[in-house]
Design a protein that fits this description.
Layout (H helix, E strand, L loop, with lengths): L2 H28 L1 H4 L3 H11 L3 H18 L1 H10 L1 H20 L6 H31 L13 H4 L2 H25 L3 H32 L2 H22 L3 H23 L2 E3 L9 E2 H4 L3 H28 L6 H4 L6
Antiparallel strand pairs: 1-2
């Protein structure tokens, strides 16, 4: 396989890792107003992701670094053209991270309420805008002959892209609520399972609409195959959650997100940034990639370090695998 093509799929894998792992973090953050009936509930929700959220977030750094090194032209066009949207994502991630660290520093309810709001907004905004960004990448944006984006921020907020954003928002929300059901016990676990059932129905409808729209506009054989896997995994996750099999439901939600991301990359292939105004201005794997020497060095580096990263992350999840309960968080709050 050509190294540039290989790295196209490695970049896809990096974004799969980010959306699967930080995706449920976003979902847990967005679930605070629905599942957090009191401060103890909210502390339980935050503690489910407390040991892992920052590790999950590093995947976006690895994905961005891989994109920069393997496809510098793609990186330059994407980050210059989408800089306002990406800046908003960055600010939201900063606000969310600060809130996790500062929420417990003072006992006042108003202090905690403000940081809870930052967690909710800091989770919902990236969940929405990542879908908007990827939908625009697949659909194509106006580029000039030098591969510079010549549209505006409002051009990115088109119906197809907004549907993509709503899809990722609902996917991550459901993914996070299923994770809460997997990681908690008692009443909050039961409420999370019921919420995941209701949210899952909306997610199935919206995600199916987005995938069908994408398929008819940009679909390939591989896209339809991966989209079918995503659809079946999503329905399977909903059924597993309804039956109380939280582990199976979470695994199938991860498979849903992974298959959906790979499907979008399959719809994009062999382009990396289609030009909607003139196909001659499109960025492709061939004209956007680094030199073969650079890709060779990157391949050996990934071969050595990626398994170590995966092993460390797996070990972290194993160490913090136990459920979080209200009694652990605040014994005085348990009646």
């Amino acid at each position: 396989m050509d190294l540039a093509v290989l790295w196209f799929w490695i970049v896809a894998f990096m974004f799969v890792g980010y959306f699967v792992l930080d995706g449920f973090d976003f979902g847990v953050g967005m679930s605070l107003p629905f599942l957090g009936r009191d401060d103890t509930d909210r502390r339980v929700l935050i503690n489910t992701i407390g040991p892992v959220w920052d590790l999950n977030e590093t995947w976006v750094i690895v994905a961005g670094a891989s994109l920069f090194a393997a496809f510098p032209e793609w990186y330059a066009t994407l980050f210059s053209g989408f800089y306002l949207a990406l800046l908003v994502i960055l600010l939201a991630l900063i606000a969310r991270g600060v809130s996790f660290e500062y929420r417990h520093q003072r006992p006042e309810a108003e202090w905690k309420r403000r940081f809870d709001l930052m967690i909710i907004v800091g989770s919902a905004v990236p969940a929405l805008l990542w879908g908007v960004a990827f939908a625009n990448i697949v659909q194509g944006v106006p580029l000039d002959a030098d591969h510079n984006y010549i549209g505006t921020l409002f051009d990115l907020l088109n119906p197809y892209a907004l549907l993509g954003g709503l899809t990722t928002l609902l996917l991550f929300f459901t993914h996070g609520v299923v994770f809460v059901a997997l990681k908690t016990d008692g009443d909050i676990r039961r409420r999370a399972r019921r919420l995941a059932t209701r949210a899952g129905l909306a997610t199935i409808v919206v995600a199916a609409t987005f995938l069908v729209w994408t398929g008819f506009a940009h679909g390939t054989v591989w896209f339809w195959a991966l989209a079918a896997v995503a659809a079946l995994a999503l329905i399977g996750s909903w059924l597993a959650n309804a039956r109380g099999a939280e582990g199976v439901a979470f695994g199938l939600m991860a498979a849903t997100i992974g298959a959906a991301v790979f499907a979008l990359f399959a719809a994009l292939f062999p382009e990396v940034m289609p030009a909607s105004n003139d196909p001659a201005n499109s960025l492709t794997i061939e004209n956007a990639s680094s030199t073969p020497y650079t890709l060779t060095v990157m391949s050996w580096t990934a071969l050595i370090f990626l398994p170590l990263i995966l092993a460390y992350q797996g070990w972290t999840y194993w160490v913090f695998r136990k459920r979080v309960t209200r009694r652990q968080v605040d014994p005085a709050a348990v009646g």
